[in-house]
């Protein structure tokens, strides 16, 4: 089995993180992982990227954590894939399957409501996962569920200290018959780590998406 963390942050891009992209790669290599997906907070979340910058420069800055992680991954043979985490009214979505060029070509993304957001990203081959859908926190005014605007559910988020959040997510995914993912939501070197086990080595982010959709190829874990 091959082990991947699907929800990882870097200090270059996520303002709430304290470990760099390269640092994350070195850590996950020591922990025995085969790969990670960098999912830094996007411009409508807790980002380090100044909102006053021109769009091209904002995207370039946003991708630094991933690019540093990717370069380090090449050195130590750990796969690093690209994604991001977007926020809508306190609820968060992990976006997989699109790249830096797609972001550069879509400066209007921040003007989309959640419906258009799903239609445009899904239509271009992206895969949207509702991250930690039942988390309760000061920044979340209420739980909002969007079954019509999500391709999958993050059922295990290792950062949760209350197991009820994950339990509810598991039940919700079963009710909706949605594919599931699991990740650490790691922001720091001492974060609790988790992720997914796959029955084959992932070659790229589309391989990850296809395997999650098939369901039988993967399982979620917490370490």
Which residues form runs of ≥5 with pLDDT under 50? none
Q: Please give the share of residues in helix.
A: 25-40%
Oligomer: single chain
Q: What is the gyration radius calculated from CA atoms?
A: 16 Å
Helix/strand order, N-terminal first: EHEHHEEHHEEHEEHE
The percent range for strand residues is 15-25%
Order of strands, widest sheet: 7-6-5-4-3-2-1-8-9
In DSSP terms (H or I, runs of 4 or more residues), the helix count works out at 7
Helix/strand class: alpha/beta
> What is the average of the pLDDT values?
94
Shape: globular
Give structural notes:
With 223 residues, the protein is of the alpha/beta class. The protein has helices at residues 21-30, 55-62, 64-76, 100-104, 114-123, 163-176, 205-214, and strands at 2-8, 35-41, 79-88, 91-96, 127-131, 152-157, 180-183, 194-198, 218-222. Strands 7-6-5-4-3-2-1-8-9 form a nine-stranded mixed β-sheet, with helices on both faces. Helix 1 (21-30) links the parallel strand 1 and strand 2. Helix 1 runs parallel beside helix 3.
Give a short summary of the structure.
By secondary structure, the protein is an alpha/beta fold. Helices cover 31% and strands 25% of the residues. It is globular, with a radius of gyration of 16 Å.
Features:
single chain, alpha/beta, 25% strand, 223 residues, nine-stranded mixed β-sheet
Which SSEs are present, and which pair or pack?
Elements: E1 2-8, H1 21-30, E2 35-41, H2 55-62, H3 64-76, E3 79-88, E4 91-96, H4 100-104, H5 114-123, E5 127-131, E6 152-157, H6 163-176, E7 180-183, E8 194-198, H7 205-214, E9 218-222
Parallel strand pairs: 1-2, 2-3, 5-6, 6-7
Antiparallel strand pairs: 1-8, 3-4, 4-5, 8-9
């Amino acid at each position: 089995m091959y082990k991947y963390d699907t929800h990882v942050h870097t200090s270059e891009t996520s303002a709430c993180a304290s470990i760099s992209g390269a640092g994350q790669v070195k850590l996950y290599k020591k922990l025995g992982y085969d790969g990670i997906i960098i999912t830094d907070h996007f411009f409508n979340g807790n980002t380090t990227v100044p909102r006053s910058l021109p769009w091209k420069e904002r995207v370039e800055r946003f991708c630094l954590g991933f690019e540093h992680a990717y370069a380090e991954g090449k050195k130590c043979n750990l796969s690093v894939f690209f994604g991001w985490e977007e926020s809508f009214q306190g609820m968060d979505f992990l976006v997989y399957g699109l790249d830096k060029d797609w972001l550069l070509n879509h400066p209007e993304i921040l003007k989309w409501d959640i419906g258009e957001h799903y239609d445009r990203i899904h239509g271009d081959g992206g895969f949207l996962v509702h991250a930690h859908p039942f988390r309760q926190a000061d920044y979340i005014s209420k739980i909002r569920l969007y079954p019509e605007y999500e391709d999958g559910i993050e059922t295990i988020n290792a950062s949760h200290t209350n197991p009820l959040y994950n339990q509810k997510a598991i039940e919700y995914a079963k009710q909706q018959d949605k594919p599931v993912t699991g990740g650490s939501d790691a922001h720091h070197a001492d974060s609790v780590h988790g992720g997914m086990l796959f029955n084959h080595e992932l070659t790229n982010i589309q391989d990850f998406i296809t395997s999650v959709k098939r369901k039988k190829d993967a399982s979620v874990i917490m370490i």
